[in-house]
Structure formats: C-alpha cells, structure tokens
Amino acid sequence: MKRTGVTAPKGFLAVGLRAGIKKKSKKKDLAMIFSELPCALAGVTTQNKVAAAPIILARETIVRGRAQAVIVNSGNANACTGDEGLKRAQKVRKAVAKEFSIHEEEVVVASTGIIGVPYPADIIISAIPALKKQMSSRGGLSAAQAILTTDLVVKQVVFPIPGTKAVIGGMSKGSGMIHPNMATMLGFLTTDALIDPIALQKALWDAVDVSFNMISVDGDTSTNDMVTIMANGAAGNKKIKENTKDYESFKKALTKACILLAQMIVRDGEGAKKMFEVHVKNARHKLDAIKIAKTIITSPLVKTAIAGADNNWGRTIAAAGRAGAYIEPAKVKVEMKDLKTKSPKIVLDLGLGNAEATAWGCDLTEGYIKINTHYN
C-alpha cells in the first residue's frame, strides 16, 4: 500500500479504525495522525458562534503553534454538550498525550457528527492503545476513511513543493452543512517541509481564503469546522520564511492542495450530481467579486437551474444584484457553460475593474432532502 494523504510526507504515521462510536455502523469512526518529530502547527476554525468543545481546545493549541498528534472521531460532534463535553475532550487529549509521551498541549482533538449527544470519551480512550499499535506510514487511507460521515468518497491529496524534496499531504471530510467562512468540514494537512510557524499560519490563512472559504453546498455553517497543518521538517530543507521565493512556492502548493480538497467536498455534496464553478471578473474591488461569487453559489434558484441544466441567466444576475456589492446592471455580461456536464461554469463579467474571484457550489436535488430528513 502506498503512502497517501497525510502520511505521504516523511515522518508521519496515521490510522483509522472502528471504535464503536457509530453504534449502528460497522464503518471506521476514529482516526489519528502522529508525527515522529515535533511539528509547527497552523490552523483555522469555524466562525460559527456556537463552537464545539474540540474547537475550543484546538484554538488553544493553534495559538501555541506546536503539535505532534491529531485525534479525530466521526459520529459525534461533541457540540452543545456544555462543560461536560469540554471536560471529556480534555480527558481524551490527556490520554493521547500520556500514551504517546508528548505534552497535552501538542494534541489536537477534532470531532464531527451528531450535535447535542454526549461525547463518548471512554470509548475513544479505550481505543487509543490500538491506534498506537496499528498506525503506520501507509495509514493515510484508513484515517481518511474514518473521518467520514455522510460523505460518499474519501478525500486525499499529495502535492510536491517545487524546489524542495518536501511534499504536502492532506485529507478532508464534508458533504452537508457546507458554506463559506470555513464551510462545514474537517481538513488535515501535513508536510515534511521545515517552515517558520508564523509563515505557516500566514500561508494557511491565505490558502483557506481561496479554497475552503469559497465553497458551499447548502448555506449552513457548522460548529466543528477546522483546518490544520503540521510541519515536521523531516525533508531537511532550509527553513522557509515569509517573503521569500521558497515561501511563495510552498504557499502555491498548499493553496492547490486546499482547493482540490475543497472541490472534493463540493463534488460530494449531499444529493449533489454536479459541481459548478462561478468566476466573477472585472469587479471594482476584490471584496465585491468575492461577495457576488459566494452569493451565486448559495442561491437555491441558481442551484436548481444547474440541476436542471437550465440556462436561466436571470437567476444568476438577480443573485449578484443582492450580494451587497457594487454593480452596474447595464455593464454585466453572464455566460453559463457546460450545463449538461457534471462541471458547469458560470462567468460573470462586471465590466468595472480588474478584480476577480472564484467560488464552487453544487446543484440542489431531491437527494439532499432525503439525506437530511433521516440523518441521525
């Protein structure tokens, strides 16, 4: 089995197994990523004011900028569980740290699944020895499988960093409750590049802004959104610092990885059959282009037009007009292309300036209703 996803970079181990969190399923539901070397850590978390317990803990670790392990469960979000949910997440973090002989603050805990259900800390803790025993440098695929909920496909990437022997690996999950501003998803990236922690955080912010923050499935944001990247320096490159050519190469590779993972989420949207791209060009300001692109991908009328391969450009321009951005209707040109394919495109030329933005959404079908009527 090849080294894939988060275990593609040197020095990273991973595993996914069934711990019994999803009581009605035989699927894997617990994953772990571990670096054999200490790592610089960067992360971005949900903007939802109702933040789950693992998000609260992860933010503490992200601020410190160091981590060596990530433990992720699916089937339980540990959201809206109060102080008890936070205590249980801390208990899991402490147990991981003890098992792997690392500091508690160097463990990222992440969760995805049903909101409002007590977090099964004891089940997770009892599985930690098995995680340690089974993890390997070829465990990327099993880890990527274990974090899925309503997802239909596994999401992994590997990108080389030009000019170095280092690579970036990643995995993500997400299918429903996906919306701009960190979407509703989990994303975990690893790299064996040596990079300054501040530069790593800046690169991730910029990459997320044009990837995970530019997708939508259903307009609902989550309590558990998180994207992290760990860098362990195992490739032996010269330390990458901000405002250098090496930094730009790293950020370009990281951005490509994030965009591809984000697009995989949209393609796997609940009930979706098509992913469509919206490109807004010649806007007066960048923010205007972003606002319009995001509004179009979230419009139910546009999404159903995409589902029906209906060249109803009026819905597109109407959505643009309510985006809260500057627009002169007489100058706008709309083009809807490849509507009968699985990858339609909408190009909106505002004719006002040079700013542009791209966003990705999926069509809206009866399948979305069926999945979310019975999700439990």
Short description:
This protein is of the alpha/beta class and 376 residues long.
List the helices and strands and how they pair.
Layout: E1 12-17, E2 30-45, H1 53-64, E3 66-76, H2 82-100, E4 107-114, H3 121-134, H4 140-146, E5 155-160, E6 167-173, E7 186-191, H5 197-209, E8 215-216, E9 226-231, H6 245-267, E10 275-283, H7 286-298, H8 300-307, H9 313-321, E11 333-337, E12 345-349, E13 355-362, H10 366-373
Parallel strand pairs: 3-4, 7-9, 8-13, 10-12
Antiparallel strand pairs: 1-2, 2-3, 2-9, 5-6, 6-7, 10-13, 11-12
Could you walk me through the main structural features you see in this protein, from its secondary elements to its overall organization?
With 376 residues, the chain is of the alpha/beta class. It has two domains: 5-267, L-amino peptidase D-ALA esterase/amidase (4-Layer Sandwich); 275-373, ArgJ beta chain, C-terminal domain (Ubiquitin-like (UB roll)). Helices cover 34% and strands 25% of the residues. Strands 1, 2, 3, 4, 5, 6, 7 and 9 form an eight-stranded mixed β-sheet that branches. A five-stranded mixed β-sheet has the order 8-13-10-12-11, sandwiched between helices. Strand 11 (333-337) and strand 12 form a beta hairpin. The longest helix is centred in the C-terminal third of the chain and has 23 residues, at 245-267. The relative contact order is 0.14.
List keywords for this structure.
376 residues, alpha/beta, L-amino peptidase D-ALA esterase/amidase, Ubiquitin-like (UB roll), 8-stranded mixed β-sheet, 5-stranded mixed β-sheet, 13 strands, 34% helix, globular
